[in-house]
Amino acid sequence: MEILSNFQYKKLFLPNITGKILANNAEIQLYRLEDYLKGILMPVIPYRTTFNFIIFVTRGHIKQYLENEEFHAEKGGVIFIKQGTITATLELSEDIEGFFLAYENNVLSEQELPKHKSSIFFMTPFLELDSLTYGTITQLLPIMEQELWINGLNINDIVVTMLHLILIKMLSVDSNIHHKSATRSMELSLQFRDLLFKHHVTEKKVVFYAAKLSVTENYLNKCVKNVTQKSPKQWINEIDINYSKALLHSSKDIAEIAYELNFHTASHFTQLFKKITGITPKIYRTQYLKGKVLD
Hints:
The protein contains 13 helices and ten strands. The protein is an alpha+beta fold. The protein has a five-stranded antiparallel β-sheet with strand order 2-9-4-7-10. The two termini are 20 Å apart.
């Protein structure tokens, strides 16, 4: 599965954008959906990105595949795709309007963002904004857009501050987020997730991640379980299975997928898949081909 940088994403899927936008490598980027995604090459094969991006819809609708679910956003809807998650644009209406806001993780170290970093990471992938929040964010985005263009698409303190304000406004309407100051456990859990996206195909043992983070396996288990309510091993298994679901949308056979994900045998992969989803990979593929939406 492709892991795409911002540049690779634009080059692969967006044939109609300008050379200036293609070459833009700023850590925060903002575009209009009607200019940026119009003409996107579909169907889009699921991919991962090295950056985060947020889709704000002000008119029309978009359907986005994200971590094994399909999200349909209309006016007031927000789809939040975090770095490393499996995603793909499935549908885009002709009258689509809105904003595409992309940012790299390292800008979260700027200014006031660190204390909200954990909450932002665990924010839900789909939000429907109330009218007041929607109005505030849709006023901020054009100002950010203007600041970027005035500054030659380069970021400055104003742009970073505005990203901060937009993320905090999004957090304020996410009822699933409990706002707490970042703790050692939270930071360790985030670092574990970052490592997991990079290494889960080849590294299935918790001890590998504990060693990378310079902690004991027991301590990592305790921290991740406390913060996420799942053990590191659950995370490893689930990310493998979510990854495999995207691969099952392709023409690869089950044995190939098992091999690509570094399982010992196709049987081992099938057993884990059934344990987590309740069905076999073969049945999942059959239901997907029939158009059934699966959780």
